[in-house]
Write a structure and sequence with these properties.
Chain lengths: ~550, ~130
Amino acid sequence: MLLLPALPIIIPLAAAILGVLTWRIKRASFLIALIGSLAHMAAAAALLLETLAHGHGVLHVGGWTGPVGISIVADPFGATLALMASWSGLAAIIYSRKSVDAARQHRFYFPLISVLLAGVSGAFLTGDLFNLYVWFEVLLMSSFVLLSLGGAQRQLQGAFKYVTLNLISSALFLISAGLIYGYVGTLNMADLAVRIANAPESIHTPLLIVGALLIFAFSIKAALFPLSFWLPASYHTPPLAISGLFAGLLTKVGVFAILRTTTLIFQGELWLTNTLLVIASITMLVGVLGAASQYEFRRVLVFHSISQVGYMVLGVAIGTPEALAAALLFIVHHNIVKTNLFFITGLVERVRGSTDLHATGIRGLYATSPALSILFLVTSMALAGIPPLSGFVAKLAIIKAGFEAQAWLPVAAALLTSIVTLYSMIKLWSEGFLRSPERPGQEHHTHHDLHAPAKVNPYPKLPLSMVAPCVVLSLAAVAIGIFAGPIMLICNRAGEVAFDRAAYVKAVLGSESAELLRDANTINTDQETSSHDVPFSLPASEPAPSMPEPTP
Amino acid sequence: MNLVMALLTGTLFAVAIYLLLRRSLVYTLLGLSVLSHAANLVIFTAGGLTRATPPIVLAGETAPPTPHADPLPQALILTAIVISFGVLAFMMALMNRVFKTSDTDDTDDLTITDIEPTFEPEATPTSEHQH
């Protein structure tokens, strides 16, 4: 089907428009967003199957082929991520129904989520650098509104930081897109790959600097370490449905943009990927140390978001097909688990009225809500990477790829991060769930007696629309761990295709351009830079030329 | 001409960074606005400054007159201007609300996202922190 690559973008946009038009009718916008995200999911799944079977799905918008028009290019990697966007959207929409107040829902809440999903899917499927900028703006704009909708003081202050940093990032992205156009005269990603590979030596260094600026802009959006401070300042402020959706989805768009930059546009530029390796390692450690120092569910989770982005970028920076496959698996795993942890935090808040471990009212959840506690335990252990859950296979794949690339220090950082992740999740578990609610001899006891009886309800009534997404997502985390084999097959295929940029160029521009790219690669072979372009040909005994150890 | 444009964009970036580093909300807004103008000028200059005719295909022809200006940077800038206009309008409204709810213009005082210990009004006060 010709339109298939564009359907994951068109469907949520149509749902958003319909939702705005019917905003006066009660419940209509919710139902439209719900049906829209189901259709979105079906379209993305069909697209994924299509790309797995037949390679890239390309749509030249308006019939303008080649580098002139805007191309929508779906590869298995992007299609999987579009599918991921659809299921996060679905989960967030269902979860929001009873957890987000009516005033917000009345103010175009669901159409905004649909716009966000359209923007995210567009960013995953576009084949044009400037078009990517536009999709970024679409998703940012709706995320700005979703973040500040409701107008609480902390939301507005968080939104101020989020908006300012993201606008600076967008301006840098725009500048680097303009400079790249100035140097090579195209913005089509496939054409960029060909022209940059064939660029004269004199503009090689300026192009690399522009590429670094591009990655800098994406790093702000992905929340890599020195640029990550907007995330813990804003993601914990909106309703938990929004926090979960953002934390599960938005930073991944930045990671995916970095992946397209390092594997498609600037493949084999060791200077860029080695810098990313160092940054990813630092991001993992700094993020998880932030999480370990926090005592409130949401803050722990937002700091974990930063450290987990480090894992994904580690996979992208290693850059072998196996590492890209591992990064994809990690992105999917983290999306499910992180969204779910935010949703479960919402349930905890419903039950106890607080999510701060310093508030004694939260203690002893296991005694009163064992089922909720099991949900939390399963999901948090999946985040920490305990077998047989999803985090274990995802981290194993990343670390295995790191070993094969001989990136010892980043692997050590990843393992250390894993331990501290486990520590901070165990802290939430033992303080919030296991610790008994009444501890004799506690100095603040009388104070809490005023509050405790009202909050502790042994049989809290939780709405099904809030519980069901949590249960399904927890089961998904278990299923990824158990059925890791078949899922890894899809990821491996996606990693191979994402790595093989000649196939991408051939699908978008035809085989002549792909030949041009191959020629440029063979000329450069003696410079050691293009060993990346020969998949699976690295002998195991030879030290991988692409992967020297970074020195921190 | 390129030198003039380079100096102009450099000045605009300097102004934008200076404004963004100020602690006032209004200066931040102005800084973002100047930053987007600077970005547009970079695209304009990088796209190539030429003394050529507009890229318009005359009646009866199939291609524009041979030395013609590249239309793509102009299209990019137009798109970017529209987007930045919308985003800055939102930003202005947001800053207005921030100023009204937080009653301050100083960005150093916008610390509630960093220090607020709990999220529910009935939750325990901060005296709980020691144990």
